Amino acid sequence: MSQDDLDQRILTILQKNGKLTNEEIGTMLDRSPSTIRDRIKKMEDERTIMGYSAIVNEGRVGINADAYVSTNIPPEKEGEAISQLLGVENVSEVLHTTGERRIMFRISAESNAELLQILDRKVRPLGFEEMDIIYVLDHVVRNPGV
Q1: pLDDT in tens, 39-51
Q2: CA 57 to CA 139: how far, in whole Å?
Q3: CA distance 9 to 39
Q4: Is residue 145 predicted with pLDDT exceeding 60?
């Protein structure tokens, strides 16, 4: 479904601060809270808004290794392998990409050693081949959605 200008403005506001109330957004946009509530509900129902999340300081919760992995998998194994990959607790994102490697995913762990163990014990057995690991050194900006 296409969004009008009001929907776009609501989305922009929510992407910057998903904790705002309907009243606060309504005040910002000079609309009633019920209008904002109805618009947000519609976008949730249509899956334009797919969810809400918190931006976590990973170091404070024991995650000190973060990486993106580019890889390939034989086409006949891809569907099942990606479904299983999504079930690996440490994997937070899976993407189809262009280039030599057709799959990219984000993985995190307490340490680089644990991250490599997860790749060897849980990911490689799914059939993924030719893994290129790109470690994240520092998060310059952590603001998903904007």
Answers
A1: 999 999 999 999 8
A2: 10
A3: 11
A4: no
